[in-house]
Design goal:
alpha/beta, 10-stranded mixed beta sheet, two-stranded antiparallel sheet, 29% strand, globular, binds manganese (II) ion
């Protein structure tokens, strides 16, 4: 099994290497990830300049180039690239050039949850989308803490899922957004297949400086309170459940069609019969 591993926290982030160690027991792992942290850049692609990619150390502290990751007593060869671009750039370069076709695309393990409507802002999900649109089985995976994240539960889950997929390959591509509580695995309550909740984090804006130095700092640090609906990803994570949400790329909202037909009714006659 060939696995492309990417993320938005950067190629040196501990989460991607926790995933690499877990997945190396199931298949051949290729890490292609941004040189710098890129959380929150969503699906952004670099289209107006060339994107550089260079061999990266498989462990921060080791020299760049193909290397090995330790796994108990075993040493596993891993190839890693550092991309001077976005998470989505990294996934595209991996699949189209540096690595080629794979059996599984994984983005993560992200430090911090990606729940509900946050998936459209998330660089972790933004990278994964590039796997899904190419028809690959794709997993975006995050743990619910930015500070002192505990990756063990998420890494174990990844290994188990990858093993299942290597034994019984999926008949078609799919896209899973997984959120794992950042707690020791033995305290996790279970696994729940969920649907996306609504808004989970809101922005706050702080003014900084004055005169020509004046700026506005945007932070996504306000959890939107309220009781999350049962069955949603937000609800599951609050209950210390692992949330697995199947995603598609459907932003259309058919329920709104009648109301919008009312809004535009007669508009084409008005538009085509302009008095000027
Ligand atoms: Mn991130």
């Amino acid at each position: 099994m060939k696995i492309l591993l990417t993320n938005d926290d950067g190629v040196r982030a501990p989460g991607v290497w926790a995933a690499a160690r877990a997945l190396r027991q199931v298949g051949e792992v290729f890490v292609v990830a941004p040189e710098m942290e890129q959380s929150g850049v969503g699906t952004a692609l670099t289209l107006h300049s060339a994107v550089k990619a260079a061999p990266a150390p498989v462990d921060p502290g080791l020299p760049a180039g193909p290397g090995h990751i330790e796994d108990g007593d075993a040493l596993h060869p891993v190839v890693a690239y550092s991309v001077a671009g976005t998470p989505a750039d990294s996934c595209v370069l991996g699949l189209e050039s540096l690595v080629g076709a794979v059996d599984l695309v994984v983005s993560g393990i992200n430090a911090g949850s990606n729940l509900g409507w946050d998936v459209v802002v998330s660089g972790t999900v933004g990278a994964a989308i590039q796997g899904y649109v190419r028809g690959y089985p794709t997993i975006a995976i995050s743990v619910g803490a930015v500070h002192n994240p505990q990756f063990e539960g998420a890494a174990r889950l990844l290994r188990l899922l990858a093993r299942r997929l290597s034994q019984a390959p999926a008949s078609s591509g799919f896209f899973l957004n997984i959120n794992v509580p950042s707690i020791p695995p033995e305290r996790i309550s279970g696994v729940e297949v969920t649907r996306l909740g609504h808004r989970s984090y809101a922005e706050s804006v702080r003014e900084e400086g004055s005169g020509t130095d004046k700026g506005y700092r945007i932070s996504r640090n306000r959890p939107v309170s309220g009781d999350p609906q049962p069955g949603t990803d937000i609800w599951a994570l609050k209950r210390d459940l692992i949330s697995i949400t199947p995603l598609g790329i459907i932003l259309g909202h058919r329920e709104m069609t009648p109301e919008i037909e009312g809004l535009v009714s007669g508009l084409s006659a008005q538009l085509l019969d302009r008095p000027d």
